[in-house]
Amino acid sequence: SSVSPALLSGAKAHGTLAEPRRRHRNPILAWSTPVSAACCGLLRLAACGLRLAAWSRALTRAQRQRITAGNLRPGDVTALRKFICLTQEQFAEALGISVHTLRNWEQDRVTPDGPGLALLRTAARHPRTIRES
Fold first, then answer.
1. Taking the CB of residue 117, how many other CB atoms lie within 10 A of it?
2. Phi and psi at residue 77, in whole multiples of 5°?
3. What is the pTM of this model?
4. Which of 25, 46, 68, 114 could covalently link to 33 via disulfide, CB atoms 3.0 to 4.6 Å apart?
């Protein structure tokens, strides 16, 4: 089956999902952005116009609740930093800590406690503020 050039150009301009493109069979979602056969599970994401890159760095509700409660698990600090879209250097500067300390937290060599944990909890609650600082 062929896909119309107008449909392809619109989807490429929108930049949501990878080739090959087709519309989903579900009539309710037929209006949504074209999706690849492998990405049918991400229809709501595509319909919202979010990019896959944004999806891959998304922070799950469980992770956000754990961080705001102060119960960190391995990978939570890295997930939070990627969710805020900052490099290690930028995130460390925004929090007012050294890059070395952040790397230790991300690699689970050291568990943040006290003031460091308070900073991470604040970052999880107010990511836009951290990104803008």
1. 16
2. -65, -45
3. 0.60
4. 46
